[in-house]
């Protein structure tokens, strides 16, 4: 396992930037150890919902967790708005960094994460395989 500390700049799309960083590091499996920062726009899917909720404004990224791999990232975040109201859920594309996002990834050298349809859940779920 190797660690990959990242600082994402203003305007970066959180999901896309993490996928790009993992690819540039030649990794195929990683998980988020820590993630904090700020966003100016968040797109979050709440539990049990199909639609994505969009919030625009000054937002604190209180925590970020999840996995990254060939099937794309699966991330969850806790956010607070300018009034201190906290909300969170599944991170959708379009979460835009406001001032910074400080992320620590753990890259697993000998594994590959993919996402495959799971008949039991109806969703593309994590599949862990050794690298060949």
TrEMBL record:
Pfam families: PCC. Keywords: DNA-binding. The keyword Cytoplasm does not apply. One of its GO terms (molecular function) is DNA binding. The keyword DNA-binding applies. It comes from the Bacteria. This is DNA-binding protein. PANTHER family: DNA-BINDING PROTEIN, PROTEIN, PUTATIVE-RELATED.
């Amino acid at each position: 396992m190797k660690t990959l500390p990242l600082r994402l700049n203003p305007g970066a799309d959180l999901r896309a930037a993490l996928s790009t960083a993992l690819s540039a590091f030649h990794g195929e499996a990683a998980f988020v150890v820590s993630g904090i920062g700020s966003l100016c726009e968040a797109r979050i899917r709440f539990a049990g919902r199909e639609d994505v909720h969009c919030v625009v404004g000054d937002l604190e990224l209180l925590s970020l967790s999840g996995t990254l791999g060939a099937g794309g990232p699966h991330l969850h975040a806790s956010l607070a708005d300018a009034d201190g109201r906290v909300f969170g859920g599944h991170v959708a594309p379009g979460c835009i960094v406001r001032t910074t996002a400080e992320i620590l990834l753990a890259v697993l050298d000998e594994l590959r994460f993919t996402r495959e349809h799971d008949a039991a859940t109806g969703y593309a779920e994590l599949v862990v395989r050794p690298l060949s």
